[in-house]
Amino acid sequence: MKNVKLRIDLLPNLFLKNDGTFDKDEAIKLCGKIAGVCYDKEGFVHLENEPIDKTMRRVSMTINNGHHSVYDHVTVNLNLQNIPKILAMVINNEKQYTTSEKSARYTPVQRKEGSIITEYEEKLYNKWINIFKIKIKEQYGYIYNDSKIQKLAQENARYLVTVFMPTQMIYSTSLRQINYIASWMRDYIDEVNINDLFELKLAYYMRQFLDELYRLNVLDKRLMKNEKYRKISLFGSNLDKKEEYFGDVYSTIYKGSFAQLAQAHRHRTIDYQIELLDKKEYFVPPIIADDQMCVDEWLGDMQIVKGVNPQGELVKISEMGKYDDFILKCKERLCSAAQLEIMSQTRETLLKYKKALEESNSPLAVDIERYSHGARCTFPDFTCSSDCKFKEGKTLIRKV
User: Fold this and answer.
1) Number of domains observed in the structure of the chain
2) Residue 254 lies in a domain
3) Would you say residue 392 has pLDDT above 90?
4) CA–CA separation, 345 vs 327, rounded Å?
5) For 167-185, how does the pLDDT look when each residue is reduced to its tens digit (9 = 90+)?
6) Residue 262 belongs to a domain
7) Strands 166-174 and 98-101
8) 8 Å CB contact between 242 and 253
9) How far is Cα 15 from Cα 206, in angstroms, rounded to an integer?
10) Which domain holds residue 28?
């Protein structure tokens, strides 16, 4: 595959060598000292100056016996460059991280030399930006200025661009977690379905990811044993067989685009799994939904790029979590500033949750009713710091 190579650099930290690689030995020594805190009477100050052979015996005991929690004390800060969007979603689904990623809403898609983005995608992306700008201005020019319209047009046009498009992000996690993720990627690569182009492409980039981590001296085979046989958490199977449930905890199944899923990952207390559909379907932006000719043209263009897994491709999504965490998601996503697709899906899940609680006579039925009257600015326990003054946004009937 000819494309721009994924690259990772380490951000400055206590364990960054002059050559830009990770000082793994010193990081592991620190964790070995920390491991002694639980039983050392004098605390960490005493351990800092203990003989090195004593520290290394403790390292050997913890790292070889699966007692890896002390290796979470060291944070690795990665500057991920040209990482495919779907690979970013894979690691973002693993919970233990902090990330700051380039936004497709604010950054136009530009095809560069060697890019995995095809000429077709770039051409269709630019074509639909112009269409969306006209549609949005016609309907919402009274509330949105040209700059906002441009951003919303970009947000909708990117549905036509591959989910393998390169992005940039800062990703911070622990030394233990990055090694665990690497071990799960290694297993994914070993078990890849060679007849599935999506899996093959993802495995290809996972190999690049692992090569970069090895280059940076971040990986340690002792932390990569995977004795519990854990796997990449994003990909599920037989999701249709899961039963929906709504109570103190909830489980629901729905279809959503890759783009929506990327938004959902920001709610790390909620669990997500996906399964690709046997027959491809695509998200249709509501701003064009009333124009059948436009819808047909959109779906026709989706067919042109279907082989690259555009971000508008629908997947089956399993969402599970606690009631309180779902309400927190509502406080984030039921807003005129949120991406429309995830706002609409969150609202749909809220109404389904409300109906189920009422039918089961759950005490939570009274509570959830308070959140069912519109956007988060209508919630009794939320204060909006910036009134959008957008009626259709507040009533959750906007189309963009």
Assistant:
1) 2
2) yes
3) yes
4) 14
5) 999 999 999 999 999 999 9
6) yes
7) antiparallel
8) yes
9) 24
10) 7-101+164-223
